[in-house]
Target: KipI family sensor histidine kinase inhibitor
Amino acid sequence: MAGRTLPRLEAAGLDGWLVRLFEAIDEANLPWLTALVRDCETAFGEALVDLVPSYTTLLVVFDPLALTPAEARQRLSAVLASLTPHDDADREAPLRELPTWYDERMGPELPRLAERAGMSVADIVACHAGATYRVYALGFAPGFAFMGSVAECLECPRLETPRKKVPAGSVGIAGRQTAAYPAVSPGGWNLIGRTSARLFDRDREGFGLLALGDRVRFVAVTRDEFERLGGDPRPMEAGR
Model:
């Protein structure tokens, strides 16, 4: 278990504790983090406000009217004392399919990624859509899921100058990670398409479509199918 350290609890205000399980990013961390999420949900029950997992940590936010920081720490200590990796994560993780229209108007970096890899745009699309990814972390914005790992031929650093406004649903690549923007926001990922999926919905239980450990496939669709599914086909404005 590369990067595994003794768990550490770090105060995060009056209503949160940061559980640090690892120091280094590693795909082998995921079974431990999914187990921690599951056990915290059970241990905190209605006193739990939010769980924000990253590649190495879990932020646990609790209701300060229901628990004192000391009581919350005590519950976390009990969870950590009996924590075991979630060995069934692969079998139990749901598969989410994100219909995606890969097009230069939606993904202006498609040609650059193709040139960088010495491949055609069609090959880039086939490579990205042909893999199954795992959600390794949540953050940046509500509903934003960091997924990996993309094939080496797709690896590309973030843009030197981030865009001020990235349309909701935009699918991008940064390093060996891929993601889709749940809402309009700034961002510096290399955009290659757009999904019609609603990644964040206040009327949905849990709000976010994707959860830690989920398996995800980007399914290539035509413009007609993209629009039929509710996707926004408006191209990005110049200079964004």
Summary: The first strand starts at residue 4 and ends at 11.
